[in-house]
Amino acid sequence: MAGNMASSTLPWLTLSIFVPIVAGLIVLLLGRDDRPGLTRVLSLVGSVAGFLVTLPLYFGFNPDTADMQFVEKASWIETFAVNYHLGIDGISLWFVLLTAFITIIVVLAGWQVITSRVSQYMAAFLILSGFMVGVFSALDGMLFYVFFEATLIPMYLIIGVWGGPNRVYAAFKFFLYTLMGSLLTLIAFIYLWHAADGSFDIQTWHQLPLGMTPQILIFIALFAAFAVKVPMWPVHTWLPDAHVEAPTGGSVVLAAIMLKLGAYGFLRFSLPIAPDASHSLAGIVIALSLIAVIYIGLVAIVQDDMKKLVAYSSVAHMGFVTLGFFIFNTAGMEGAIVQMISHGFVSGAMFLCIGVLYDRLHTRRIDDYGGVIHVMPRFATFFLLFSMANAGLPATSGFVGEFTVIMGAVEYNFWIGLLAATALILAASYSLWMYKRVTFGAIANDNVRGMSDLSSREFFIMGIMAIAVLFMGIYPKPFTDVMHVSVEALLQHVSISKL
Fold this sequence. Notes:
- By secondary structure, this protein is mainly α.
- The chain contains 23 helices and two strands.
- It has helices at 12-30, 36-52, 55-59, 93-109, 118-137, 141-150, 152-162, 167-195, 202-206, 212-229, 238-245, 248-273, 275-280, 282-301, 306-325, 330-361, 372-375, 377-390, 397-412, 414-439, 446-449, 456-474, 477-495, and strands at 69-77, 82-88.
- It has a two-stranded antiparallel ribbon.
- A hairpin with a 4-residue loop joins strand 1 and strand 2.
- Helix 4 (93-109) packs antiparallel against helix 5 and helix 12 runs parallel beside helix 15.
């Protein structure tokens, strides 16, 4: 498919992928622990450069077409017709931008906190950023698979090297869960390659006239990888462990971007390649999504570890995403994609807030805090905003996606919409109860009394995240306008039976 005019000037997608990767390699080569200042500056320059090269994608994007834009194609492995084939549409554009944006936040968040192996830490995030942009822009099945699997390696190292006391267990569990599902996906990709007469082109796969049985088998194979990555109930148990043990930056990237890789996989593969199977099995996915929204919301309420609470809330919020996809209407799907972007901002900000507290007291237990507002009023203000956004307060980004999905669900089936809406009550319960116990009341102990408020660097990071959460909540139109035509085209494609 033809891209727009901007695609013929510079290979912006290649730059978006490889600028952070090359920056990461430079940081690895030049960074030294005895000169952490240089390492941090190089990392920041690399992450900012990685973000700047994604901006032409937004400004040169034509929202009036569902065609792939900024398309690049070159032969890669000729024997198996594997191509280096990139392109984005209105669905993938925002995730490329979000990935590059969050990378800057993570580099700033680890500025003073990370003191050992600084160059390896920063390089891991920069390289991971490039891999994730590759996932969102790949139009070749094998290229997608390579990037999709490659993201595991930096995150495995981030959790396993810089994580908490049980980091090796958490890293191994994360790697094992996500790899096991992906092996079935590889089998599905090989089948599709064979069915498409030796082509790994994803858009060719979308047009394959597959029968119901192969569609169901392909859907299940793809579901194995993407459901684990989202993660959906009941294959979500790796996520709380990974979040609790990961360093703050690891938790931010895991919540903000990596969970979206699975959800994006549903949009790019499961729904368009197996539309009839998607309709046939939608009831199961909706049921699993509602369990995640309600049951995991209840699980979050009883947590005494802040990170674990926000990790479970991520599972509940991502339940809205899969619910929105499988009710097959515009409100549901657009709401789900908005929820994915919003969750990137809100959950990332929540983990940053918990990181600020952990840096001062080295504990994540809610009971160890109390009265924080008396010593950290600026922090308490930001923490309140993000907790409210996590609960879906109107005028924050957390409300826009969830409300739109609920509207789509009511249109699909009133009772499903009603069940989904209970999430707003549950989210308010766990988010605000945690905030109350940590922040309000008398100062709990001398440790809390000695805490210092936000530094200028922390204030800057929180301010940027607050602007993103409020802007998207008050004026979501730029986000929905870009994706609308692509969403409509996908829904039209999925609604036409191939049988």
